[in-house]
Amino acid sequence: MKKTPRFCTTILVGKNASMDGSTIIARNEDGSDSANPQKFVVIMPEHQPTTYISKVNQVTVPLPETGLSYTSTPDVDDSYGTFAGAGINSLNVAMTATETSTTNSRILGIDPLVETGLGEADFVTIVLPYIQSAKEGVLRLGKLLENYGTYESNGIAFSDKNDIWYLETIGGHHWAAIKIPDDAYVIAPNQFNIDQFDFNSEDTLYSEGLAELIKTHHLNPDYEGTNLRHIFGSRTIKDTQYNTPRAWFVQNYFNPEIIQDIESFDLPFTIRPSRKISIEDIKWCLSSHYENTQFDPYVENDVSKKYRSIGLNRNLEVHLLQIRNHVPDNIAGIHWLAFGPNTFNAIVPFYANITDTPTSFKETTSHYQPQSIYWLNRTIALLGDTNFDLYSSLHENFEQDIMAQCRSIQLKTDQKIMANEITIKNLETANAQMAELYLERATELLGDMVNTGSKKMTLKFNLAD
Questions:
Q1: What is the tally of structural domains in the chain?
Q2: In a designed cystine with 154, which of 59, 98, 213, 241 is the match (CB 3.0 to 4.6 A)?
Q3: Can you tell me which residues the record assigns to a coiled coil (predicted)?
Q4: Residues near 454 by Cβ (< 8 Å), separated by ≥ 6?
Q5: Positive or negative CA dihedral for 187, 191, 193, 195?
């Protein structure tokens, strides 16, 4: 029995579209309305199995004898599998898996999903330790999909310092992937996203026989061209309420000059931003709830809850995997991370070339424990949601403070390279400083919220004297 799929939001930014020339792949990992504790760990080669057995369906996959270390954000409860989520390996290759997607009955009738196949719980563990480039990630995962099949529809992103590739599963065994243009970004909600596709391009990869499958089964509805979203995707009322509005909002943020319909099935997959994109921009988008529109759920009107927002109570964690091009390789990989609902958290730039992670991010308990960053963030979000107008300015100050101070720690650590002082221990020390800072400031934020909210409690009584 497999766990309920996770419904996430992905943003990809090419190196020429980012402010500092980094490649960035980012995703909200979303779950159900109830808490699902997450943790931040490093998986070392000696802790990797040589045979992988899926907890979902017991499928067995032999693995290479040696692998790379990598950061990971798995579930605390691994009853249904690891769900590693995302990470950066020791060669600065990043992977985020997965963006749950939609499909249609035409392809599922031809190539049904495979209950004994692989899925979201498995992908990072059996791919990321064994790849040396983003393209290698696509090829390894593609071969696994063809051999074992998958029981769900998903999108997976890979990056290295030069390239970003996005792969989408098609039916039970097929797949297609496209290299994201260096000067473009992608916003991918929970639907099949790849649109125009050239089978003859060096910037595309795909499963064996995919082009013939489309032709043989008359799957292309268009008179000209090959639009994979039209061929393998869905066009449902749920898409117009749950999926396309998120893409519309982010594209409007990065390209306000383009006027589009919020419910359009044909929003572009890759798009060039009107300005270069920062880490702060991506985090804001992945925390957003249609601010400054009539669709904001914190605004009372007839349509304020019509569309599913990006930041919401089901955010388990958000990661921005940044591979930098202007620094030495040993500090190029940055695993930006925040736990809990994004509207009331802040993101921390952890160095990825490490052997251990900070205690407050690593030792998350399955039960409530406010000393854990995951539980502390959920507490702040729960209280903040009760009166957004009252608490939002407190959070804005907190988030700016965290980002500024963490960037300062990161800058000072980067500068030590000039004195040849960078070691893994230095990086772990910097990570620990940022984690300690976060724990201290988040605890202060919660205290400020309690003090502020206490003055607004209904259960009070004022005497005339």
A1: 2
A2: 98
A3: none
A4: none
A5: negative
CB 117 within 8 A of CB 172: yes
Neighbours of 368 (CB within 10 A): 12
Same domain, 326 and 403: no
Domain contains 176: yes
Residues 335 and 401 in one domain: no
8 is catalytic: yes
Residue 412: domain span: 389-455
Backbone phi, psi, residue 52, to 5°: -100, 130
The answer to whether the beta carbons of residues 350 and 333 sit under 8 Å apart is: no
The conformational region for residue 10 under phi > 0 = left, psi -120 to 50 = alpha, else beta, is beta
Shared-domain flag, residues 436 and 317: no
- Print pLDDT tens along the chain (465 aa): 445 556 899 999 999 999 999 999 999 999 988 899 999 999 999 999 999 999 999 999 999 999 999 999 999 999 989 999 999 999 999 999 999 999 999 999 999 999 999 999 999 999 999 999 999 999 999 999 999 999 999 999 999 999 999 999 999 999 999 999 999 999 999 999 999 999 999 999 999 999 999 999 999 999 999 999 999 999 999 999 999 999 999 999 999 999 999 999 999 999 999 999 999 999 999 999 999 999 999 999 999 999 999 999 999 999 999 999 999 999 999 999 999 999 999 999 999 999 999 999 999 999 999 889 999 999 999 999 999 999 999 999 999 999 999 999 999 999 987 678 778 999 999 999 999 999 999 999 999 999 999 999 999 887 765
Tell me the backbone φ, ψ of residue 183, rounded to 5 degrees: -100, 20
Neighbouring residues of 452: CB distance < 8 A, sequence distance ≥ 6: 390, 391, 394
- CA 163 to chain CA centroid, Å, is 17
Beta-bridge partner residues of 254: none
Strand partners, 12: 25, 186
Q: Pull the structure tokens for residue 359.
A: 């205690």
Asked if 404 and 351 sit in the same domain, the reply is no
Say which CATH number the domain at 241 has: 3.60.60.10
Q: What pTM value is reported for the model?
A: 0.97
Q: Are 376 and 442 in contact (CB under 8 A)?
A: yes
d(CA 43, CA 214): 40
Residues 252 and 337 in one domain: yes
Task: Tell me the C-alpha to C-alpha distance, in Å, between residue 442 and each of 143, 346, 401.
Answer: 44, 9, 11
Residue 368 domain-assigned (yes or no) = no
421 and 342 within one domain: no
Single out the catalytic residue among 3, 5, 7, 8: 8
Q: Based on the domain organization, do 21 and 158 belong to the same domain?
A: yes
- Decide if 213 is inside a domain: yes
Which of 316, 348, 363 marks a domain boundary?
363
Helix (H, G, I), strand (E, B) or coil at 168: strand
